Amino acid sequence: MSDQTYLTLDKLTLAYGRTPAVKDLDLAIRKGELLALLGPSGCGKTTTMRAIAGLMSVGGGRITLDGRDITKLAANKREIGLVFQSYALFPHLTVFDNVAFGLKLQGMRGDELRRTVEGGLKTVGLLEFAGRKTPDLSGGQQQRVALARSLVMQPKVLMLDEPLSNLDARLRLEMRTELQRVQKESGVTMIFVTHDQIEALALADRIVVMRGGAIEQIGTPEEIYNHPVSSFVADFVGFENIFPLKDGRLVAGNTAIDVSGTVPDAGGLAWRPRAVPLGSGPLTGLVRGVSFAGNSREYVIEAPFGMVKAEVDAAAPVHSIGSEVRFDLPVAGAAVLHRFG
Ligand SMILES: Nc1ncnc2c1ncn2[C@@H]1O[C@H](COP(=O)(O)OP(=O)(O)OP(=O)(O)O)[C@@H](O)[C@H]1O
């Protein structure tokens, strides 16, 4: 991956009629990067992707690809590939002919066509299926045909909209690894849209978390997972205990929470259940729920200021439902949030 910016969105503003969808979005994507657009439904991921692909007109701002302003360029001139949730394969054509389709339109024929299509099928591990009709393939295989069909066109950027959401859990895992491998091998710059944080964390080089048509945070999976900047991102990546700071104190409602450690000057603090020790500490609560999760046990504790979730080793002493338990929210184990709300 080069450090140079390859695709740039500059103050991009998008709307459907009078309904704004994306506002003043700035984003710089590097060549060869695998970038995830992550966020809840309606945050503007698909709209952003459609604008990059040239499928919707831009209300304001600029899109630059490989040094060229493509803001107003027709979709078919942008050299951007798209793989949709529904693979949109031709059912009456073989795998080979599906992958060959776009190349033929460009006038490629004969040996060159065969070599290119076979190369694409090899990349996605489907060479032996070249003669099959696409309805006779599994969902994951169809997805790979769609991927090969886009890859052989050698797009400057390949965009995938919820690429794994139609697959069952096992296939999704398999395709995740596959997508990552194909991206690294082909070196193509890839952007994928997802609302699944696990998928984004597992796959992407960098994640863009979107909220309400704007970027909430950009970072590596480690940065997003360990250092969410806001309560919104923390909540999205599985911090279940999130509290605001007011006047240098951690609070829930109007109640101050006694944490151990010095509270920083920030918008709030967040703990994953794993970071909440049980059995000792300055806080007390009642156990309202316990569930066994293999290596660990998950507790729901009712404290005077609200519910707290804790996860401890399954081998640790069990606290039964209804019992009082001591616990801690140690500042040292918290993610410090710049913004709350
Ligand atoms: N065709 C449309 N007409 C009017 N408004 C639209 C249209 N498509 C999307 N919107 C609105 O634009 C905003 C952004 O939608 P968008 O589809 O980009 O979100 P998303 O993050 O991709 O969501 P999802 O994960 O549900 O696909 C939303 O408020 C949505 O209601």
Automatic annotation (TrEMBL):
Pfam families: ABC_tran (PF00005). The keyword Ligase does not apply. Signal peptide: none annotated. InterPro entries: AAA+_ATPase (IPR003593), ABC_SmlMolc_Importer (IPR050093), ABC_transporter-like_ATP-bd (IPR003439), ABC_transporter-like_CS (IPR017871), P-loop_NTPase (IPR027417). Residues 7-237 form the ABC transporter domain. One of its GO terms (molecular function) is ATP binding. PROSITE patterns: ABC_TRANSPORTER_1, ABC_TRANSPORTER_2. The keyword tRNA processing does not apply. Keywords: ATP-binding, Nucleotide-binding, Transport. SUPFAM superfamilies: P-loop containing nucleoside triphosphate hydrolases. Belongs to the ABC transporter superfamily. This is Spermidine/putrescine transport system ATP-binding protein. It comes from Rhizobium halophytocola.
